[in-house]
């Protein structure tokens, strides 16, 4: 039965939507690169997934974590770091729970007990208290030691440990951020001796994978302040808008066979979507994962018939226009004034005239070199524009908002 209760679209953060669109490359990276290499004892960097609000960073890694957990891996929950919170305390608590799952809390080895005791102190008291507290290893050293023990337990049980830390841009304490990144990075690069077939001792890396997710600002915080070590140990991926082909593919189950949904009588029925409705959803969302889910949700709720029509997509979107505008405004309002001004100037020019020189002139600048740093950040750090010839918008929602009447519909 087509109703809000059975709606498969979920326009919210930190959820894995039933109607999944795109991010094939990142999912394949976990499936074909990160997990196989870490499981085999080969070195592979951690992953830092960054992007503007609504690009689906957390949903992507939660999808990876869900798949990992279903395959038997040891996975932390999504460790969201609120502003002002102690990141080592949050991570230490989660690692202790995995250590319990691995059976480490029942060990009789004194060294492991000492490590557990120190990490428990961090989990209870936090980073700053642990630093000032009783004699013992630094918090990052204790966390590293426990990660090593956890990794060795994972080797013994033929599994992989996955740690997901979200909202990493909220870690503003430089000392805590440094200790956290060093503990995680050292664990990723650490090698242990294992016995290979034939009784030969060989060295291997721990089956440990780390994903960090957050806003693009984090790359400056971690890269500039923590130096080359972070860049070597974590590969940064900046998410941009989804291709129209990816979005249309996500809607194909509706268009061809229909989406199976409970009929209210213990059975199933199919809800279909006309091809025109699918194209309308894709056109309205401008490649933004959040807006894709929003448009789909409102279209589903706009009627009760077994087929979602193009008219229902438009009717549903009318009620979502304010939320769509707020989504883009959140992106724009986060930008420094000069970057925002750059986008305004770029949007004011015809697409063929969007060169750095003409954008600079539109901003009232006498030289293109004066605006070069702004364009570079908008491209490489934020993923909003593409510095091609001419420049173009990678974030199509921002472009539509600045150049047309979108998100309004007739």
Overview of the molecule:
It is a single chain. By secondary structure, the protein is of the alpha/beta class. It has helices at residues 24-39, 57-70, 87-101, 110-125, 127-132, 139-156, 174-189, 217-226, 228-233, 244-255, 275-285, 289-301, 310-318, 321-333, 337-348, 356-362, 372-381, 396-403; strands at residues 46-50, 74-75, 79-80, 161-166, 191-196, 200-205, 208-214, 234-238, 259-262, 268-273, 307-308, 385-386, 392-393. The strands form four sheets. Strands 1, 2, 3, 4, 7 and 8 form a six-stranded parallel sheet that branches. The longest helix is centred in the middle third of the chain and has 18 residues, at 139-156.
Give the averaged pLDDT, no decimals.
89
Beta-strand level of the residues, as a percent range?
Answer: 5-15%
> How many individual helices?
18
**Known CATH architecture of the largest domain:** 3-Layer(aba) Sandwich
Main sheet overview: 6 strands, parallel
State the CATH superfamily name of the largest domain.
P-loop containing nucleotide triphosphate hydrolases
What does the overall shape look like? globular
How helix-rich are the residues, as a percent range? 40-55%
Class based on secondary structure composition and strand pairing: alpha/beta
CATH level-3 fold name of the largest domain:
Rossmann fold
CATH C-level name of the largest domain: Alpha Beta
N- and C-termini, Cα separation = 29 Å
